[in-house]
Amino acid sequence: MKTIAAMDLNSYRQKKIKERARLDEEWSKYRDLCLSCFRPRQICFCSSIRPFNTYFTFRILMHPKEAKREHVGTGRLANAALDNCEIIIGSDFDQHQTVQELINSPIYFPMLLYPGKNSINLSSSPLSLEFFNKRMPLLFIIDGTWAAAKAMMRESKTLHHLPRLSFDPTIESKFAIKQQPQKFCLSTIESIYYVLRCLESHGLENIGTQKEVLLESLAKLVNFQIKCASDPTLTSYRRSGPTEIKQYKDPSSRIPSKRWMHRKVCFDG
Length: 269
Known about the structure:
The chain is an alpha/beta fold and 269 residues long. The protein has a domain at 41-219. The chain has 7 helices and 6 strands; from the N terminus they run αβααβαβββαβαα. It has helices spanning 2-28, 64-67, 75-81, 97-103, 146-155, 188-201, 212-230, and strands spanning 57-62, 85-89, 108-113, 120-121, 136-143, 164-166. The longest helix is centred in the first third of the chain and has 27 residues, at 2-28. The radius of gyration is 23 Å and the shape is globular.
């Protein structure tokens, strides 16, 4: 009986040792993450981002699925570059306490960056301080795939009543690792960059070349992703099934998605 008990105890100890080793291995994958962009520190470039302050307050409404894609998302990079910015995760913001408090705040003048027939085109319609009615301008930015952003707008009816801002992009997206549904579609960080450029032309921002860190960060992200996608040893970047490996193709050479040929990219209810 003593021999059996000793064997059971030894098995139990070995089991615990293996379990601890497994947990240590799992934890090692997370303990070196950057707490700003949630990327591994060895491939994080947040230290090269020079944060700057803006007159406008920004709130990035990030879809939960986008929040899990730290390795390709640009919303977190934009948040790291903007001092006056925060990320709010959700999909239906009608019941979101923080968003509703901001919308109904007597301090802020909330607006939404989203294209639409009734939006104020910053490229052709300048804003003035009088527009904000002596309140601080706050701009919500929707961060997610275009399909997810459309669903977020459809579900969040309180966002429909906010003044919408838009702009005319002068170039196509430089987010070369993603295929955009239409030529006017830009990534989150690019959209913020162009908004700031428009606001500067209206005299509402004075940040000069500081905003260039947004596009610089995007370029670093794209170059890193293309490097990984082109590396034959990193098959996870191109795996489409248990055994099939797809070769990386530049989005400009890909066939446009058929689902956007006859669908509106943006919600305009």
